[in-house]
Design goal:
Blueprint lengths: L3 E6 L4 H13 L2 E7 L2 H14 L4 E5 L5 H14 L5 E4 L14 H29 L2 E6 L12 H21 L4 E8 L11 H10 L6 H14 L3 E4 L5
Parallel strand pairs: 1-2, 1-4, 2-3, 4-5, 5-6, 6-7
Helix pairs in contact: 1-2, 1-7, 3-4, 4-5
Amino acid sequence: MQNSVIIITGASSGIGRQIALDLAQQGKYDLILVGRNQQRLMDVVATIQQTTPTKAWPYRYDLSQAEQIDQFIEDIDSSFQRIDALIACAGYGQFKLATEFTYQEMMAMFKVNTLGTMYLTTRLAQRMVDQGFGQITIIASVAGQMATMRSNVYSASKFAIIGYANSLRLELKRKGISVTVVNPGPVATPFFATSPELITYYQKVKRFLISPQYVSKKVIDNLCARKAKRDYPALLL
């Protein structure tokens, strides 16, 4: 029986990395791992190859750039006969007062969290329509439903991707393709140690922190359940 082929973006770190490792343990998926950091992608692939029989391929692309998304689609079209699922984890955040943001900082966050994810998902959705099946999971955020101080631009980027996913679900539901939005609360990853602003934000939200392993389990469980929306932890809402 042919393994399902799953694309995971943001696979070099955080939630995406954990999902890749956990799916690999099941031994029934072929994994296409996408990220910007070649060395960290290779480390994930090496871990998978050393500990599981799963096939995994690293693809270094910057999904904030439309031309790189086009090249990625061209590459996988020539290499894979089917794409069963997309798990879109790529994203990042800056957390500071709205008045402190530059236009370039705002646009950079939207290019990764929103525009790049939308464009990649749109391209893959067309392929799934053509093949008659597929699953799309977009990792958004509770911040896309409930804004807090200093989450301003990040929240806006997540509100936008949730709106896109909800509309896409309506468009694809009669075509054999499911669309799920997963909205984690703050996740305990090295992300929060990258700047003084994030360390301050971390101190305010740490009592709500959940682990990448927790989110990964919920995402993988939903590959069978195909629910429209998942909020973790639900108590935040």
